Amino acid sequence: MGIQRIESVTYSVEDLDECVRFFDDFGLFLVEQTDEHAVFETLTGQTLHLDTEPGPLLPPPLEAGPTLREVVWGVDTPQELERLAAAAGRDRAVREDAAGVFHTVDETGFGVGLTLARPKPAAFAPRTANALGSVSRWNTALEPITRVHPLRMCHVALNILKEGREEAVAFYVERLGFRPTDVVEPMGVFMQAPGDEDQHTMLLCHRPDRAGVNHIAYEVPGFDDVIEGGNYMIDHGWREARRLGRHTVGSNVFRFVHAPCGGRVEYAADMDRVDDSYETRVHETTPPHHIWALRTNRDQQDAPAS
């Protein structure tokens, strides 16, 4: 089948301790740390690498400061891995490291890796919900989640230059097997990996003047996890990037936080799942960013009496 999921991501960072604190608060699991390097893991075994001294197989950064340097994609079989590495390397160098990861670059200059997927089973129980006529929780009161632990990295969004966007998308579609699910002509292309069920695994966002990381989304079990995870981050001093809401494309509930490694990270839940019968939607104008977003007037002062 081909690419199943994001297997790992690598950032070049400046303040490693701050980044470690951030992702510990975010709910990932620290599995390795040195003076120059740290590795975190999701519940399903994907890895996040933070490096102050990135290795020689990574391409140059596309923006100043801390940023995403490489996304490694997990492939289902050795045969598919060999085929995709050959397809990616038709007109560019592909180098294999000692761990069996094939490294190259995409049309924009982001690092692209290919390796065998190594998913871990994740034991979790989404919260049950009650509604009139549909009761699934009896005689049990809910407790605070307290600490949220993301299940997986579910999608990555990259900013690319508007000029050359067709070639940038074609690299992932024609060589790596992604398929466009929603094409938003003024803004970008949402794409699904062959082995994924999410409405999108990747988003390439068109920008007139810059390329760089936009965000990486992490799936959590449910709506409450999105809220409580974001609250925990705010309570620990991190800055929210968007109000809580539900996206139009993909339908997932979201909450974004600015990340010291560059870009943002997203808690995401309840994304649309689509199969091969889902036809690519082409939008000539950009749909609204969200179906709804949190609004409140609690903090507004009463208007003065006239």
From TrEMBL:
Positions of the VOC domain: 5-119, 152-270
Pfam family of the protein (one): Glyoxalase
InterPro entries named among the record's database cross-references: Glyas_Bleomycin-R_OHBP_Dase (IPR029068), Glyas_Fos-R_dOase_dom (IPR004360), VOC_core (IPR037523)
Organism from which the protein derives: Streptomyces lutosisoli
Superkingdom of source: Bacteria
UniProt name for this protein: VOC family protein
